[in-house]
Design goal:
mainly beta, 5-stranded mixed β-sheet, 1 helix, 5 strands, disordered N terminus, Serine aminopeptidase S33 domain-containing protein
Length: 92
């Protein structure tokens, strides 16, 4: 029996956070991290964290995310720097 995949997937809830760190050479790196979080308040059933392949983005998980939503399980999809939504740049 095939599982039906609904066509009315909800749009992912995207968030952004700026993370700054210093390299070994003393340069500051400002990273704008973009990620998806389906249940920011958490879930008593657990959390699934998805790391995409190369190339890819959080969108690689759109079908399993929908199933996790139905099961009330939190999903966090991370975008690696330089892929789709997330960039990094050096600050002087």
């Amino acid at each position: 029996m095939k599982t039906k995949i609904p066509l009315n997937l909800s749009a992912p809830k995207m968030y952004e956070k700026v993370v700054q760190f210093e390299t070994e050479k003393g340069n500051l790196v400002d990273l704008r991290a973009v990620y998806e979080d389906s249940l920011t308040s958490g879930s008593s059933l657990g959390t699934v964290i998805g790391f995409h392949g190369s190339p890819g983005s959080h969108k690689d998980f759109k079908y399993i995310r929908h199933r996790l939503d139905e099961m009330a399980i939190r999903f966090i999809g991370i975008n690696y720097p330089g892929f789709k939504h997330t960039e990094g740049k050096y600050l002087v």
